[in-house]
Amino acid sequence: MTRFKDFYKLKDFDSIIQMDQKQLQIMIEDYVMEIKNHLSPNTIPTRIFPIQTFCDVNDVVINWKKIRRLFPAKVKRSGSKAWTTKNIQKMLEHSPDIRSKALIHFLASSGVRIGAIQELRLRHLTEMPGGCKSVIVYPESTEEYVTYLTPEASKVLDAYLNKRREDGELIKPESPVFRTQYQIGIQKVVPLSERGMSNVMQRVIKRSLIKREKINNGQRYDVQLDHGFRKRWNTILKLNKDVSPAIVEKMMGHKVNLDSVYLTPTDDQMFEEFQKEIADLTIDDSERVRVENQNLESEKTELEKKVNEIEQMKQQQADENTRRDQALEYLMRKEREREIKNI
């Protein structure tokens, strides 16, 4: 609305309401034609729909069907590809500080949108078994959902928080998970903004010399700066046939079908699904091997436990059969004794 007002150098928003509706119709049409010259076709509706809402609320009648016909055809969105594990390893290798490393691990492990992190506070993180953490995303809102951090990501985040403590910051439940840079820790804590996080990622990618292919006439990249992590997360979990796709959608905060409304898994059930892919979500190769060995050991222990349970059941059954045979033998002996006595 402000862009539209400033484009026509209008004094205030009331000027739009008081304007002749035919004149306003022409102005909106001209505005669409103008912004088509320098904006992505996919962006045009987002610039016009607020104007439509404003007019509707104020009973200003405009022929919106005619205006929508001026919209250009949408184009394929950028960022269809995901970051690879090798890409992320390279990012971490060229990250200048522990905050950058913690942010990269946070995005890769949780699959959250980068815009959701600014509002996160430490009270929204909870310790989980195996060195993991749970994360409440968009807390206290209708969009709230839960995802998790791997032991690897949790460890790096703890190192970042410890660095802030050592620098003098008083870490509290209301402290932001990520803060802006500081000279001394006791400075006023300012949460790191979405733009700030994007700048961090841009610098890291530039330093790491990771090449991205330009698409859409060179205006976009095939791998999105932040959503590349989210696509990787989604792909890894969805490719595992043992992981529930519906619960994956829950952990991504998607609400696209009836499952998002009626499916209400417990926290334990959600975490159980996440644990199945901790190894593949882990970035460091040696750490991944450690997790895989730990999983194998856990599976071995579980198998041994089941074998022991089966053996115990067999022994119990054998003992029961022995007791039954002994009881039957006793009854038969008593019966023979009674027959001999009668004779």
How would you characterize the overall build of this protein?
The protein is mainly alpha-helical and 343 residues long. The protein has three domains: 2-68; 85-283, Intergrase catalytic core (hpI Integrase, Chain A), CATH 1.10.443; 295-343. The protein has helices at residues 2-7, 14-18, 21-35, 44-57, 64-68, 85-93, 98-110, 151-166, 194-208, 227-238, 245-252, 259-262, 267-275, 278-281, 285-342; strands spanning 125-127, 133-137, 145-149, 214-215, 220-221. The strands form two sheets. A three-stranded antiparallel β-sheet has the order 1-2-3, with helices on both faces. Strands 4-5 form a two-stranded antiparallel ribbon. A hairpin with a 5-residue loop joins strand 1 and strand 2. The mean pLDDT is 88.
List keywords for this structure.
3-stranded antiparallel β-sheet; single chain; hpI Integrase, Chain A; two-stranded antiparallel ribbon; 343 residues; mainly alpha; 5% strand; 15 helices; 3 domains
Terminal Cα span = 115 Å
Report the top-level CATH class of the largest domain.
Answer: Mainly Alpha
Helix fraction by DSSP (H/I, runs of at least 4): 55-70%
CATH superfamily of the largest domain: Intergrase catalytic core
Q: Rg, please?
A: 31 Å
Low-confidence residue ranges: none
The percentage of residues in β strands lies in under 5%
| Number of DSSP helical runs | 15
Q: What's the order of the H and E elements?
A: HHHHHHHEEEHHEEHHHHHH
How would you sum up the global shape? Answer: elongated
Strand line-up across the major sheet: 1-2-3
